[in-house]
Amino acid sequence: MAEVTVRKLNKMFDTTHVVKDVDLEIRDKEFVVFVGPSGCGKTTTLRMIAGLEAVTSGEILIDDTVVNEVPPMDRDIAMVFQNYALYPHMSVAGNMAFGLKMRKFAKDEIDKRIKRAAGILGIDELLHRKPRQLSGGQRQRVALGRAIVRDPKVFLFDEPLSNLDAKLRVQMRVELKKLHERLAVTSIYVTHDQVEAMTLGDRVVVMKDGWVQQVGEPLELYNTPANRFVAGFIGSPAMNFADVNVVDRGGTMWIENPGMNVRVPDHLQARMKPHAGKPATLGVRPEDLHIATDADPADLTFTGEIEVLEQLGSEILLDMRAGNSSVVASVEPTLRARVHDKIKLGMNPARMHFFDAATEAAI
Amino acid sequence: MAVTALGAGTARRPVVRLRKMEDERWLALALLAPTAILLGLFIAYPFAEGVMLSLSSARVGDPGKFVGLKNFFKLADDNIFWTSVWNTFWYTGVTTVFKLALGLWLAMLLNRHFRGKAIVRAFVLLPFIIPTVLSTFAWKWMFDPTFSVINWTLFKVGLISARINWLGDADLAMASIMVVNIWRGVPFFAISLLAGLQTISPELNEAAAIDGARPWNRFWYVTWPLLLPVTMVVMLFSVIQTFADFQLVYVMTGGGPANATHLFATYAYQIGIVSGLLSEGAAVSLAMFPFLFVIVVVQLLYIRRVETR
């Protein structure tokens, strides 16, 4: 069992600065997910923790030991690669046994561990096959099995599900979650898929351009994103943004733009005050918009025209144009509407987000 | 649709000659014919002629007559022939081991990232690109006892006090031509094995490192087995070429001193062309065939085993 600590971690590839001052404390048995668009430095950070990339500056600690100079084989970690990286010339059992053989485990102990891992993953039938005789999902399990048998301090996952088809991915995601419950080993998981991040992570680290944007539990990121990037990255469909101006009307803060004239909700009034007279960004999630009724106060509604209507069965996504911004709203599936209909939408005041137009930080 | 189209076609029957091509057997024959003719003309026919020649008593200016296996029996009693048989095996075996070891080492180095890699790769190929006769002449001068750079260097460094007659001593001459063969053959191994190495995903090495394998174990358990099919094919080509090597020995020693460095090919040339005993020369070069045949069959069987693993 282990904690992983990262302090002021930096990585330069020649002149490209790909990981910038990353600070993290990963607790024992925690499942932490690094998420971000490609090129954000998440995989490089993981590879530095694995020992596959040299650290440019900063420190990586596993438990209380600085491991910067410790080679991968001595870090007691296991890693699942994006392309599985199974040894093609070895059988499934051989793949799983390799790490144990290298560590000079006794034959019967190796057999016992392989049997146990194969049981957990349901691959007992495949032990004598070669990787090329397996399907993508089966290879994925073998890659997991190779990690499990080692009983390491830390599991590292580098986009392990990205080569699977959508259905299998959802299924493996659930299994990974169960596996973590069962094994309770500190895990670090890299993905570009925010759904994977939200569903798997005890905590999620959102990265962009080498910087950590926010670290938090999934709902924390969803409810109180630290900046516009996190707000837009977490959640599907993505949050709507509108450029607005903050205006002071007799001590009450309002926001306005050509299609919108809305009073800032009470709990945000004080925080918005310093931004009076300046541009800001309003963020509202599609699921926090609804078809306005008479009960909606007029200053929290706006009208838009439907451009595209996406029937998902459990909900309807309306792609709308309101003033000069486009808006996506998720509404009840009972709505009967057609393209080009004009519809009045209401916003949930408790769930409005504001971002500084210049710094993009949450207000 | 198809039925009506065919029906319409019957109105104007294609010429009979073309219709014959619709039969796959005829088509196959027609497509194979060019290759078969070329192979027959340039390989099977000369081979058959060679066999006939070796069974005759032909010499320059005398077509000779059929003498059966007489030439081969004569070879069996020929000491120089047996020396060249031994030489050929020794030469092929030693150089192949060195070419493989050095080529693999070079390939692994070139498979790493470093500045100027493209230029180094191009330079590595040089010994392979330069015409063998030219480079071998250069080597011959370097091995010259009086004027050579090798002796001069060894002398200046103080390692020797008397000249070494590299090509004048049987063992040294053999060693010298082996050095040249290795020098010339390493690039082929290096570049081919490098191509093989590049097909091995670097992730496998990383996975092995995380699995606890030290560099040597990573090589032995991951890289080497995955490279083996390529290695075997490269070895096969190299063994065939080295076994039948001619120009290198011909230029360096001409088979000397005192016939000590003859290989199959140079001895066959010596007897058949220089001495004019065409039939006996043909017998020598044909004697190479069963040896080479066994080597190639064994290697091909092994390659098949490796590839179907």
- Percent helix of chain B: over 70%
Gyration radius of chain A (Cα, Å) is 25 Å
Largest sheet: number of strands, sense, barrel closure of chain A: 6 strands, mixed
Task: Examine the secondary-structure arrangement and name the CATH architecture of the largest domain in chain A.
Answer: 3-Layer(aba) Sandwich
CATH first level of the largest domain in chain B:
Mainly Alpha
Any idea how many domains of chain B?
2
Fraction of residues in β-strands of chain A: 25-35%
What is the radius of gyration of chain B computed over CA atoms, rounded to a whole number of angstroms?
Answer: 27 Å
Q: Looking at the structure, what is the overall shape of chain A?
A: elongated
How many distinct domains of chain A? 2
Mean pLDDT of chain B: 86
Helix content of chain A: 25-40%
Low-confidence stretches of chain B: 1-9
CATH superfamily of the largest domain in chain A: P-loop containing nucleotide triphosphate hydrolases
Going across the biggest sheet of chain A, name each strand in turn.
Answer: 6-7-8-3-9-10
CATH architecture designation of the largest domain in chain B: Orthogonal Bundle
What would the CATH topology of the largest domain in chain B be? MetI-like fold
Which assembly state applies to the chains in this document?
heterodimer
Q: Can you put this structure into words, describing what you see?
A:
The complex is a heterodimer of chains A (363) and B (309). With 363 residues, chain A is of the alpha+beta class. Chain A is built from nine helices and 20 strands. In chain A, the strands form four sheets. Chain A has a six-stranded mixed beta sheet, sandwiched between helices. Chain A has a five-stranded antiparallel beta sheet with strand order 13-12-11-14-20. In chain A, helix 2 (92-102) packs across helix 3 (107-121), helix 2 packs parallel to helix 4 (136-150) and helix 3 packs across helix 4. The longest helix of chain A is centred in the middle third of the chain and has 18 residues, at 166-183. The model of chain A has no long low-confidence stretch (mean pLDDT 90). With 309 residues, chain B is mostly helical. Chain B has two domains: 16-54, no CATH class; 76-307, Orthogonal Bundle (MetI-like fold). Chain B has helices at residues 2-9, 16-21, 24-54, 70-76, 79-110, 117-124, 126-129, 132-142, 149-157, 170-198, 202-210, 215-243, 247-252, 264-274, 278-307. The two termini of chain B are 48 Å apart. At the A-B interface, strand 6 and helix 2 of A face helix 11 and helix 12 of B.
